[in-house]
Each structure stands twice: as C-alpha cells, then as structure tokens.
C-alpha cells in the first residue's frame, strides 16, 4: 500500500443511545468508504455510548447492549477498518476501551491505561486501568492505539514505541475550555516529535449537559508538525491521506493550516460564543425540545442570552418575555422591544404589578411590623419566575435563565426567581466576558452588514436588577472588573484570600467576596446547568459541601 486513506469521524453522538450511535457508525463508515475510499475510519472515545455516560455505566444492561452493538458493526462486514470506542466488561471489571474491526472481524482491543480523575472527569469511579499497549499490523505498518488521557502521559506512548509502533491512533472525548486547543497542539507536537511517530487525534464534538466537545481533530507528522483538518464545534467526516515513505513509515499529506495558525486566529470571544451556541442547541434538541423562552429585561445578560438563543435555534424558536414592574424604566422597555424586533423573535409583555400586589396582600399580616427589605425584591423576581414556568408548561418551551458567573458566584440572584430555568448559557461567563461577547456578536453583525444584535445602549448602560428605585449592581457589589478578578483567583485558581490581598486587592473587599462565594453554595446547587467555559466552572468542576464550617479568613 502506497497510500493510506483515513477518515476521522468527528461526530456528535447522544449519550446512552447505543442503537442510534451504532447505526450512525455503520452509516458514516459506509459513507467514508464510498466517498473517500477510506481504508481506516476512526471514531471518538466511547463512541458507542457517547461521553460521558456517567452512572449509566453502572446499569447491568449496558454491557449487554454494547456487545450486541459491536456484533452489529461486525455483521455489517464493511470493506475497511474501523476504530470504535466502547465500555468493555471483563468479569467484575469495566474498561474504557476501543475495538479495531477489520473487514467485519474484531481483531484487537485496547484498554485505556490513564484514567483522568480531576476537574470534570471521574473515570476511576467506573473504570479499571489497562496495562498493555496495543500495536497491530495493518496496511503494511505497525499501528498503535491509545485513548485520550493516555496521550497526556509519557508511558503509553513509550510502550507503543518500544513495541514497534510506526503510527499512533488516539481517540478522544476532550471537552472545551478556553485554552484547551493550545494545550492539545503542544501535546501532539511533543509526543510525535519525541518518538518520531505520526499521530491521528480524533475528538468528539457536541454538547452534553454542561460540557461542550469542540472537535478540532488533528494530525501530527513524525517531526511534530501539527495540522488541524477537523472543524471546530461542528460535525465532520475528516479525510486525511498518509503516504508510505519507507518500510511501514507513513508521512502526512496535509494542506490544512497548522495548529498554531489556527489558534492564533481564534479569539477568546469566538471560542466561547461558538461553545455557547453549540451547548445550548444540543441541550435543547437532545432533550427533545424545539423552543425556548427567556425573560428579556433590557439588560446585557438577557440581551446576550437572546442573541445566542437565536443563533443556536433560529428566531422562530425563541420567545422573549418582558415582565415590567413599577421600577422597570422606560429605557428597559424600549430596549427589550427593540432587540426582540431586530432579532425577529416573538415578544410578550406581561406586567407583574397585580401578581406582586396579590402576594403582598397575602403576606401583609405575617409581615406586619417588619421593614421592607430584600424580601420584597425577591418576590418581584419570583413573580417573573412563576410566569415563565407557566408559559413553559403551557407551550412546551424550555426556560433559559440568564445569570452570569459573577452573580452566581456571590449569590446575586434569586432562587425560584431569576434562577428559574432549564439551562443557562452564561453560567460560566463572568460579567466582564459578557460584555466582551456582546461586543463580539455585534462585530459579527457589522461584518455581515447587519444591525447590532444587541442594541448599543444595552451594553453601555449601568447594570441594574431594577428591583428598587435607582438600584445599581455596584450598590451591592464591587465594580465588576475587580469582582471578576477576585472570583477568578479564588474559584478558578484556588488562591487563598491572603494571597489575593497580597496580589493587590482590598482586604475588606476580598473578605466580603470570599464570604459570599462560600455561603451561596446552596443556591448554586439548585441552579440550572450551563456551558462550561473555564477550568473551574460551578457544577461538575467545583464540588463544595453546602453544610460546612470552612472560613475564608483574610490574614
């Protein structure tokens, strides 16, 4: 064989849908063989179950379904070689494994050796570690196989090289965060160059609850030059051609941009925006819904959420609801109406005056002698939450909550009020990033010759919950530029409060923010899921006890 035609099947599978995933594998393999004359078709990690299946792996029926699926793929007797990820049971042990199926015969299995158990990963809860390399004689070459985390450790690659590997296939379910692409590129450069072995790196794509898998399947040649033929945040059947240049030695033929070129042109805002669009679209569609709705206040958080929802689902599937009260400004009313008109969404105005007054009347006796405080503000927010959930029930549309990471961190949000909803695309976006993303979305509109998706005044006006006369966010919180830095250091980088003060922040301000973060875990535990953007998102990433006596003291 002088030329090896490979197709990297960067697909968006549905967790737990083993029959559907199996059928997609068979159909896309047939497509790859027919359209690209593929000799080798490679699927992502745990492609039969999709990733992460979590406690579905503990279901007694799962392994039986997986074995039937593997047999179905073998019975299809496709004229090529397939690499398929699956959970493999041996006695009492379960492995994260892959199967090499050549012309309908399962010729090899590999068991993942390095199991990640940090950040969003908890594979040691389910899987046992493999111990042996897998190097198979294929296409006149010695081809090695590894799975995701194996590539981040030296030992599996060293084992494969010592076993005579001349080509490495690495299948992945590697989730997005803002710097992940550069990390992958550097990793492939180092591993390929160190062992002079080309690497085919295939990654899953799609949203799964809080996680987004961004694709960007890659190829590294034996010199460590990385090219990225796989699209970002989109499915793709990615053809790659390898040429035989020696005894079992393959060289990569690639006309695609290098990894460093790609990373340089992808701004932080583009990466995050694309992740949010994909994460929202998949959450809605994979859960069997078509439509969403949200409270549109005339502020930047709901304004950005509306733009993302329209880009993800189409304007015809989005409803914006303005729910004014006596403190809602005329500017908010006009800006909300203007944005809904620009984006072409359905727009409803449902005043909450009567609802609030009814609750106030009911509570008049038990509240007698008590001063007005945050309770009354929260009732306003909860009136809005009730209306949105009623509309959701009646029309079958998911409610999107719109709180950003800064608010969620310090509890500047109302349980069963503005926190009510099924999904929150801004959950891991700081207020600072929200502003950046709003500007980014408007720049995209400008480049397309369109009007701003988010009216300029929505971006420039001082942020306010408008639950009290003249209210501004900064009446209760530090300015967002400082607040977001403190949150990043405390939550995402695990700085102590003392170290944050040493970094130049005000002692009292740091103490207040840390205390708010610590005491509001109970709210975050009840918040809707949302797209993970950073290395430490609330939810799967950061798991703190609600009931605890930890004190973040500023020395």
TrEMBL record:
<feature type="domain" description="CN hydrolase">
    <location>
        <begin position="4"/>
        <end position="244"/>
    </location>
</feature>
<dbReference type="InterPro" id="IPR014729">
    <property type="entry name" value="Rossmann-like_a/b/a_fold"/>
</dbReference>
<feature type="binding site">
    <location>
        <position position="174"/>
    </location>
    <ligand>
        <name>L-glutamine</name>
    </ligand>
</feature>
<dbReference type="Pfam" id="PF00795">
    <property type="entry name" value="CN_hydrolase"/>
</dbReference>
<dbReference type="InterPro" id="IPR022310">
    <property type="entry name" value="NAD/GMP_synthase"/>
</dbReference>
<dbReference type="GO" id="GO:0008795">
    <property type="term" value="F:NAD+ synthase activity"/>
</dbReference>
<feature type="binding site">
    <location>
        <begin position="295"/>
        <end position="302"/>
    </location>
    <ligand>
        <name>ATP</name>
    </ligand>
</feature>
<dbReference type="InterPro" id="IPR036526">
    <property type="entry name" value="C-N_Hydrolase_sf"/>
</dbReference>
<dbReference type="GO" id="GO:0005737">
    <property type="term" value="C:cytoplasm"/>
</dbReference>
<protein>
    <recommendedName>
        <fullName>Glutamine-dependent NAD(+) synthetase</fullName>
        <ecNumber>6.3.5.1</ecNumber>
    </recommendedName>
</protein>
<comment type="similarity">
    <text>Belongs to the NAD synthetase family.</text>
</comment>
<dbReference type="InterPro" id="IPR014445">
    <property type="entry name" value="Gln-dep_NAD_synthase"/>
</dbReference>
<comment type="function">
    <text>Catalyzes the ATP-dependent amidation of deamido-NAD to form NAD. Uses L-glutamine as a nitrogen source.</text>
</comment>
<feature type="active site" description="Nucleophile; for glutaminase activity">
    <location>
        <position position="148"/>
    </location>
</feature>
<keyword id="KW-0436">Ligase</keyword>
<feature type="active site" description="For glutaminase activity">
    <location>
        <position position="112"/>
    </location>
</feature>
<feature type="binding site">
    <location>
        <position position="402"/>
    </location>
    <ligand>
        <name>ATP</name>
    </ligand>
</feature>
<dbReference type="GO" id="GO:0005524">
    <property type="term" value="F:ATP binding"/>
</dbReference>
<feature type="binding site">
    <location>
        <position position="407"/>
    </location>
    <ligand>
        <name>deamido-NAD(+)</name>
    </ligand>
</feature>
<keyword id="KW-0547">Nucleotide-binding</keyword>
<dbReference type="GO" id="GO:0003952">
    <property type="term" value="F:NAD+ synthase (glutamine-hydrolyzing) activity"/>
</dbReference>
<dbReference type="Pfam" id="PF02540">
    <property type="entry name" value="NAD_synthase"/>
</dbReference>
<feature type="binding site">
    <location>
        <position position="378"/>
    </location>
    <ligand>
        <name>deamido-NAD(+)</name>
    </ligand>
</feature>
<comment type="similarity">
    <text>In the C-terminal section; belongs to the NAD synthetase family.</text>
</comment>
<keyword id="KW-0520">NAD</keyword>
<feature type="active site" description="Proton acceptor; for glutaminase activity">
    <location>
        <position position="45"/>
    </location>
</feature>
<dbReference type="GO" id="GO:0004359">
    <property type="term" value="F:glutaminase activity"/>
</dbReference>
<feature type="binding site">
    <location>
        <position position="180"/>
    </location>
    <ligand>
        <name>L-glutamine</name>
    </ligand>
</feature>
<dbReference type="InterPro" id="IPR003694">
    <property type="entry name" value="NAD_synthase"/>
</dbReference>
<dbReference type="InterPro" id="IPR003010">
    <property type="entry name" value="C-N_Hydrolase"/>
</dbReference>
<keyword id="KW-0067">ATP-binding</keyword>
<comment type="pathway">
    <text>Cofactor biosynthesis; NAD(+) biosynthesis; NAD(+) from deamido-NAD(+) (L-Gln route): step 1/1.</text>
</comment>
<feature type="binding site">
    <location>
        <position position="118"/>
    </location>
    <ligand>
        <name>L-glutamine</name>
    </ligand>
</feature>
<feature type="binding site">
    <location>
        <position position="523"/>
    </location>
    <ligand>
        <name>deamido-NAD(+)</name>
    </ligand>
</feature>
<dbReference type="GO" id="GO:0009435">
    <property type="term" value="P:NAD+ biosynthetic process"/>
</dbReference>
